[in-house]
Design brief:
Layout: E1 7-8, E2 39-40, E3 53-60, E4 69-71, E5 74-83, E6 86-95, E7 101-109, E8 135-137, E9 140-144, E10 149-154, E11 160-165, H1 166-169, E12 184-186, E13 189-193, E14 201-205, E15 211-215, E16 226-230, E17 233-239, E18 243-247, E19 254-259, E20 271-273, E21 276-281, E22 286-295, E23 298-308, E24 319-321, E25 324-328, E26 339-343, E27 349-353, E28 360-364, E29 367-371, E30 376-381, E31 389-394, E32 405-407, E33 410-414, E34 418-424
Parallel strand pairs: 2-28
Antiparallel strand pairs: 1-3, 3-34, 4-5, 5-6, 6-7, 8-9, 9-10, 10-11, 12-13, 13-14, 14-15, 16-17, 17-18, 18-19, 20-21, 21-22, 22-23, 24-25, 25-26, 26-27, 28-29, 29-30, 30-31, 32-33, 33-34
């Protein structure tokens, strides 16, 4: 693939030692990080106001909203490219030291998406493309394309290991704007939604791609499932068109359900805090939370609050710290939507700060590291008392609906045009 804008600052070369597992934050191999919840250990920065973000490299990342997965000294993402004259989604592996392409593999041919991803401000729109983020697990990398093809490659070389066509093999049911959910792997099982009646929720063996379990009739959404332990019960939580579904990752057995409305698209993942599960969607739905209770070996969900047509997370999943949600709470407020703090137990707004749009953020220690939709890195205290901004730098051209990533003590980010690796000094 052509990477015409690649730049590299040799004086900032990452050494092999700096890529060791002992470095914290270490790797970020899956969507929303090693804990599935957008959190990472605190950085080594003691004074963010005096810190500098130094560009180590930039490279083309043509169109779309796939985030980086960073592990094994490589940064993986899905971009738009051409293979034998056909335009489609391409999984690329970049060297984290230089940003140079190590290998790339075509996933699916898709000339045009349904169009929702072209929205934005008048001066910053377009760029519709791949939405799903790859996942690195062990020595393999996994991806789900827009047409529900599932792929496994050797992470080091890009050699294909297996693929599985959910549309063909599981009577897959596509949705408007195509698949945006990322693979979730727990133990030996890769989980996803998208099959037809009786096999909507799927668990594939990560080594072979064979179906280990399947069940239920839920239609898929754009939301990626999360992994959590509630009342000591390990589970995966899906956010389908029916609502929330907690299940056992090993065998797919449903543990609990909570009905929740669906209109047009649900794209933000559930957020878990202790025994509370929060969820939100746009298009008039809004936010709400459920308390999960345990009786004997059974789990059940009870609604504790709901804000219809308010408390929107369009596709930006918030993080939670000490009972407070922090994230981008808006619906189609491109360039202007706020970062906000919300009490997860009550749904009460604590504070809002305009000017972020539907960007994304993660939590590192007690600091929020955000990307505005116009490409600014903004560092904010995770403070429920007030908004306290510590750092703001413009780092990317293009539209940013992807998550920032902390790995190897570097910050990785991408837009519809370019990806960047930043050293925090």
């Amino acid at each position: 693939m052509n990477r015409s804008t690649l730049t590299f600052i040799s004086g900032s070369l990452l050494t092999a030692a700096s890529l060791s597992a002992e470095t914290a934050p270490a790797e970020w191999g899956q969507f929303r990080g090693p804990n599935h919840d957008g959190t990472a250990p605190a950085t080594k920065v003691s004074n963010w106001k005096g810190a500098k973000l130094k560009t180590l490299w930039k490279t083309d990342t043509p169109t779309g909203f796939s985030s980086f997965a960073v592990a094994g000294a490589k940064a993986f993402t899905i971009v738009t490219g051409e293979t034998e004259g056909n335009t489609g989604e391409v999984l690329v592996a970049l060297d984290v030291r230089t940003g140079k392409e190590v290998w790339s593999k075509p996933l699916t041919v898709i000339g045009k998406y349904d169009g929702g991803g072209d929205a934005g401000t008048p001066e910053n729109k377009g760029g519709d493309g791949p939405r799903s983020t790859p996942v690195v697990n062990g020595d393999k990398v996994y991806a789900i394309d827009a047409n529900l093809g599932v792929f496994c490659f050797e992470a080091a070389t890009g050699k294909p290991v297996w693929n599985h066509d959910v549309m063909k093999d599981n009577a897959g049911v596509q949705i408007k704007w195509q698949n945006a959910a990322s693979p979730v792997i727990d133990g030996d099982i890769l989980m996803m939604c998208g099959g037809g009646a009786g096999q909507a929720l799927l668990g594939l063996n990560k080594d072979t791609g064979k179906v280990v379990w399947k069940g239920e009739n839920d239609k898929m959404t754009h939301a990626t499932p999360v992994i959590a332990d509630i009342h000591g019960v390990h589970q995966a939580i899906f956010f389908t068109q029916v609502g929330l579904v907690g299940l056992n990752p090993t065998d797919g057995k449903v543990l609990w359900r909570a009905d929740y409305p669906f209109k047009v698209s649900t794209a933000a993942s559930p957020v878990v805090y202790e025994d509370i599960v929060y969820c939100s969607a746009g298009y008039g739905v809004g936010g709400g939370a459920f308390k999960i209770s345990k009786s004997g070996s059974g789990l059940s969900a009870e609604a504790i609050w709901r804000r219809e047509n308010e408390c929107f997370n369009h596709w930006s999943t918030p993080v939670v710290k000490d009972g407070y949600l922090y994230g981008m709470f808006s619906f189609k407020e491109y360039g202007a939507g706020p970062m906000a703090c919300v009490d997860i137990k009550t749904g009460k707004d604590i504070w809002k700060q305009e000017g972020f749009g539907p960007g994304q953020l993660i939590l590192s220690g007690d600091k929020l590291i955000a990307l505005s939709d116009k490409g600014e890195v903004v560092v904010v205290e995770a403070n429920p008392e007030k908004y306290v901004e510590l750092k703001r730098d413009d780092v990317l051209d293009g539209k940013v609906w992807s998550y920032p990533v902390l790995a190897y003590d570097r910050l990785f980010a991408r837009s519809t045009k370019e990806g960047v690796c930043l050293e925090i000094q």
